Every structure is written in C-alpha cells, then in structure tokens.
Amino acid sequence: MRPQFATAALLLVLTLAGCRQDMHNQPKVLPLRQSDFFADQRTARTPVAGTVARGQLEEDAYFYSGMIAPNQPGDAIPFPVTEAVLQRGQERFNIYCSPCHSRVGDGNGMIVQRGYRHPPSFHTEQARAFPVGHFFDVMTHGFGAMPDYAAQVAPPDRWAIAAYIRVLQYSQHAPVADVPPAERGRIAGTPAQLPQAPAASSTGEQPGTQSAQPAPAQKPGGRR
C-alpha cells in the first residue's frame, strides 16, 4: 500500500502546484476603476494627441459630411453609382426610410398612417432641387421630427440611399424622351378601359348575391 500512497501523494502535489492564480489575478485595470499607477488615479486615459482610432480617420471630409463648405451640401455622389449601389440603397431605404416616407417617397408611410408626423414628399419642386448632400446630412444629423440615423446607417449606405432617392424622384418626373423607343408606346398610348362594375338591381342588391332570408319564428315551447 505504501507505493500506492506515495503515488497518490505525488499526484496531489502536482495537482496543487498547477492551481495558480495567474489567470484570476491578472495585471490589468478594469474600466472606470481606480488605479494607483497614474497620478490622477484614473484608468480611463485621454488619447494621445494626434492619434486616431482605427476605422475613424474620416480623411475625406465630403464623404463623411456631405458638405463642400459650412452649411453648403454638395450635389455629387463620392463614388460611382452602379446598379449594385442602387439596389443597396433601395434595400436600406425600404428598411429605415419607408416606414415614414413610404416606398415611393410620398411621405405616407405606415407609421404616418398611424399618427406620426407627416414628412414632406420627395417629389415636390423643393425636394427635387435639394442636392444629394442634403439627404446625407439629414440622415447623419436628423431634421425636424426626424431623428438621426448615423448609428443605424453607415456613411456608404447613406450615400446609397441618397442616390436611390434621386431614382425615386426621377421615376415620377422622367420625360418621355428618356424612355427607350421600344417602350414609349406602352406609356404614350390610351390606357385600356377597365371593366365596369355590374349595375345594382332595383332592390339595391348586387348581381350574384342573395338577399338574407328572415329567420323562421320559433314555435311555442321550442328550444331557445
């Protein structure tokens, strides 16, 4: 039994030797905890002057603001507007903008129909004259009753939405000359006559319907 006891004791010693607190007592500071390392005893440090957090350089001022001068929005998308960009803009617009502005941009979205303040239509003369940088700035900072969407919509998606708003505006005011010749006949011709609804009968009933019959009177002593 002694060899077995010695083996068990050796395993116990090795196990206890492996139970160290290095992973529990780490030499680090927790957020907003007091620190004796710095003179002001604060763990939250001011960034070194001239440093920029990763991903927050924002070197292109126009790309991140939509402004070419103070309070002067620009009227250019800062990257090529491709079909993929417009599809992305439509997707983001339908998610974040259409609840108020509706999917056609007339300001009659589902939330507005339930009592929220009615936003202006994108199809007015004033809205169509706005530069695209205006829409980017409104999404970034909000306007009137509209809150900002800077946290929900990244700058590239804001530009994609602004480009799609231009598409919505153009869809309602495009001249016929811009339509391909093969398609012009479809919109320039006389609209087809819709079938007329059947006239009501002299009794006020619609054709194909049956008048309701009065319920038979119950006999005395019958079940109720």
How many individual helices? 8
Inertia-based shape: elongated
Q: What structural class should be given to the helix and strand makeup?
A: mainly alpha
Radius of gyration: 35 Å
Number of extended strands: 2
The largest sheet is: 2 strands, antiparallel
Strand order of the largest sheet: 1-2
Mean pLDDT: 83
> In percent, how helical is the residue content?
25-40%
Proportion of strand residues: under 5%
Explain what you see.
This protein is mostly helical. The protein is built from eight helices and two strands. The chain has a two-stranded antiparallel ribbon with strand order 1-2. A hairpin with a 2-residue loop joins β1 (67-69) and β2 (72-73). α3 (83-101) crosses α7 (155-173). It is elongated, with a radius of gyration of 35 Å. The N and C termini lie far apart (93 Å). Residues 190-224 have low confidence and may be disordered.
Describe the structure in brief.
The protein is about 40% helix and about 0% strand. It is mostly helical.
